[in-house]
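User: Show me a protein chain along with its predicted structure.
Assistant: Here is one chain, sequence first, then structure tokens.
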Amino acid sequence: MITKKQLKSKPVCKVTFKLSEKEANSAKKVNIVGEFNNWNINATPMKKLKSGAFTATVDLTQGTEHQFRYLMDNTDWGNDPTADKAVPTPYEDSENSVIIA
């Protein structure tokens, strides 16, 4: 699930990403990897909640688009079904999620 909050004081959109335990495939850790962090697999770790879900909030410039994916336990890649859209990648049978801030 993705929620967005546009700030009135500056051109920033606070985007909160949340994955349920089921969506995260019961992972021990999840990172968001995307254009907004230069595809750095360690730059945006998600916080694990008591429920087993994961959450993270990222500040993005309003009106911008960013491709991203979730990396679970450093091995499994996943997309967000609630993203604004999906785009194909250069890799066979693969897509990236896209968030529009």
